[in-house]
Amino acid sequence: MIRRVAFFSVLLFSLARLAAQSPVGSGLVPFDFKGNWLGMTLDQFRANNSGETFWIKDDTPSKRGDRKQKAREVTTPFCTDQLRGFEGDLFPQEPGVVLCNPEPGDLYHKYREFAGINADMILYWFYDGRLFKIDISFPAAQFIPAQMAFQQKYGRPSAETSRAFQNKYGATWNGVADEWRRGTERIQMTEGPDNGPGQTPSEGAEILFVDSALGPPRAASAAPDF
């Protein structure tokens, strides 16, 4: 009996350590999206998503060949360590964080297409040169095809929940939220409220890839002022 208890104690301890471990450097296969995996380097990302060279003036992409507007050359993907003000770059970045968009505007649909779905935007976040977050915004009307594609690739979610919504007329509905887990990595897929009655399903759904071990350290909470 003592041996059995000791065995299960060691097993639980090992599982707890595994759950708290980033797949990067641990032998686990990291989550990936379109050939971009959590933990990859910024240089690897640029090589994987190399697109076109643009001539940039006042941080606005101009058409290739419009040499009168040429200010400097920038190669996609657009990243905040080389260029600011592109689509998705809305806020100041924390020290060490670089945001990349491989498909600025409507230029290269292939970089934001997946499972037959044309995403609204896909942003990649790096900290200290490692990919720690992927943020995918896509139409809620395409939630079911996206959910089926992710289940085909990653299996059943580790957790399946829903959130209740209500419009101003009193109609209620649920939005699905799925989560896949692998060590410190998470994929969170949320349907959001836009598939409900009277809503606009052309937007609102989101998929988030995150490795909590690779992101910037959390700022300490401020002490209450009361």
Notable features of this structure?
single chain, 34% strand, 226 residues, 3-stranded antiparallel sheet
Provide a descriptive summary of the structure in words:
The chain is of the alpha+beta class and 226 residues long. It has one domain (24-211). Helix content is 16%, strand content 34%. It contains three helices and 15 strands. The strands form four sheets. Strands 6-7-10-11-15-14-13-12 form an eight-stranded antiparallel sheet, with helices on one face. It has a three-stranded antiparallel sheet with strand order 4-3-5, with no helix packed on it. A hairpin with a 5-residue loop joins strand 12 and strand 13 (172-182). The chain is globular and about 55 Å long.
Ranges with pLDDT <50 over ≥5 residues?
5-18
Biggest sheet strand order reads: 6-7-10-11-15-14-13-12
Structural category: alpha+beta
How many beta-strand segments? Answer: 15
Q: Mind telling me the C-alpha Rg?
A: 21 Å
Helix proportion range? 10-25%
Count of structural domains: 1
How far apart, in Å, are the first and last alpha carbons? Answer: 53 Å
Shape: globular
Treating each run of at least 4 consecutive H or I residues as one helix, how many helices?
Answer: 3
**Series of secondary-structure elements, N-terminal to C-terminal:** HEEHEEEEEEEEEHEEEE
Give the biggest sheet.
8 strands, antiparallel
Strand content: 25-35%
